[in-house]
Amino acid sequence: MSDTSFLTWPFFDNRHRELAEALEAWCAGSLPVDQRDVDAACRGLVAMLGAGGWLRHTGATGAERLDVRTLCLIRETLARHDGLADFSFAMQGLGMGAVSLFGSGVQREWLSETRAGRAIAGFALTEPGSGSDVAASTATAARVQGGWILDGEKTYISNGGIADIYVIFARTGEAAGAKGLSAFVMPAASPGLEVVSRIDVIAPHPLAHLQLNGVHLPEAALIGQPGEGFKIAMSVLDVFRPTVGAAALGFARRALDEALARVQTRRVQGAPLSDLQMVQGHLADMALDIDASALLVYRAAWTKDMGAPRISREAAMAKLYATEAAQRVIDMAVQLHGGDGVRVGLAVEALYREIRALRIYEGASDVQRVIIAKSLLG
Ligand SMILES: Cc1cc2nc3c(=O)[nH]c(=O)nc-3n(C[C@H](O)[C@H](O)[C@H](O)COP(=O)(O)OP(=O)(O)OC[C@H]3O[C@@H](n4cnc5c(N)ncnc54)[C@H](O)[C@@H]3O)c2cc1C
What residues have CB less than 8 Å from 326, skipping those under 6 apart? Predict the structure, then answer.
């Protein structure tokens, strides 16, 4: 059983503690799922998470706001049980984040579908020539009678190929760079939207390269105002970056659990590995990294939930620290397993592959360092 003492911290209300307990029970009965067919697994997970009521928390329909502590608690718990379950949950939130924060009444109708698990969401920002440098995006949205025509490419799009609805960012040209981008709601069934290839990664999940060949969207597809796309994307990332840290935290907690079980049963020199002081030192470092990550993740989430309009610095610190720390913790868990640590099929081997992309997407680690430094230098 993982350490849950953090739930007594003052960042949480009782509703969070009750939710964590209920989700733990749900995970124990439902996860992990069969992942031999990743697309089918993700479709199934979205449906299961919807039926279980968990996806309710991934979208704000108007009267309610996104509760970042809840998003983080759910991601941490799901990640500890099943990385693909965390992925499926997270993408419903990230994909629809712009709609939750800035969407019109009509656009919000999609939320009843994604929150129920009846529609799968995607977030299409990255392009072949612009990942970290969002301001260099070149996909275009040209205004035409009654709407917009989109052209260009998007790549590394999670849920690409299985999504029903994307929020997509394209250049509308109000100004050069970041101030000339806009955000749109784009159904996957839009004529001209093509999934040109799927991308295989070390921890498999649905990922695709998309081509926009004159995709026609109605006027009402525009989220917010023309030229607000960059601001919208950064506001969405402010909410979801701490949750990436939370997922990393879940992976790290699982790695520590696996390591603790291993070192107390594996014997060397006639005694359990855990009797060795050097092993104990590593366990202490892992626990320290985990608690420090949890403090930063839930500090960021709490700050947002208390009404801070932007939490760029707190979110960057949470994502940077928790993902880098989880990589260290998981690497040590692999090490403490010896040869078994790199055997395909063991939990720590999967975690070792699973954690890597979190240090890259939604802003690579060095991009988080730049954000933190900017907040210091003004
Ligand atoms: C598994 C996975 C899932 C993804 N899902 C999505 C998705 O759903 N939607 C989406 O839009 N995108 C998605 N992405 C794309 C992801 O957000 C980008 O890969 C990421 O932003 C980095 O962009 P890039 O790959 O173009 O790398 P680059 O921008 O080329 O950066 C490469 C490296 O250069 C360094 N670097 C870049 N800029 C700076 C800087 N300013 N200061 C210091 N160092 C810097 C960093 O070390 C960085 O890792 C996903 C990526 C992966 C791997």
Answer: 248, 249, 251, 252, 255, 289, 293, 355, 358
- The C-alpha atoms of residue 288 and residue 282 are separated, in whole angstroms, by 10
Q: At what angle do helices 83-102 and 68-81 cross, to 10 degrees?
A: 160
Q: Which is the closest atom of ligand 1 to the Cα of 126?
A: 11
The closest-lying atom of ligand 1 relative to the alpha carbon of residue 362 is 17
CA 364 to ligand 1 center in whole angstroms = 6
Q: How far apart are CA 310 and CA 235, in angstroms?
A: 7
Quote the ligand 1 centre to 126 CA distance (angstroms).
Answer: 8
Tokens of 24: 């733990």
Quick: pLDDT tens for 239-260: 999 999 999 999 999 999 999 9
Which two tokens mark 248? 């990393």
| Sequence-ordered strand ranges (E) for 259-364 | 267-268, 271-272
Which amino acid makes up residue 282?
H
Q: Which of 56, 67, 54 is nearest to 23 (CA)?
A: 54
Residue with tokens 């995709």: 215
What Å distances lie between residue 271 and 31, 257, 259, 265, 340, CA to CA? 34, 20, 16, 9, 19
DSSP 331-345: HHHHHHTGGGGGSTT
The ligand 1 site (C-beta within 6 Å) comprises: 123-126, 131-133, 156-158, 201, 207, 357, 360-362, 364, 366-367, 370
Instruction: Give the active site residues.
Output: 362
Phi, then psi, of 122 in degrees rounded to 5: -140, 160
The rounded Å distance from CA 360 to ligand 1 centre is 5
The tens digit of pLDDT for each residue in 154-212 reads 999 999 999 999 999 999 999 999 999 999 999 999 999 999 999 999 999 999 999 99
Q: Count other Cβ atoms within 10 Å, centred on residue 132.
A: 12
Per-residue DSSP letters for 230-260?
Answer: HHHHHHHHHHHHHHHHHHHHHHHHHHHHHHH
Contact in structure between 61 and 107 (CB atoms under 8 Å): no
Which distant-in-sequence residues (6+ apart) come within 8 Å of 59 by Cβ? 66, 92, 93, 96, 99, 100, 111, 114, 115
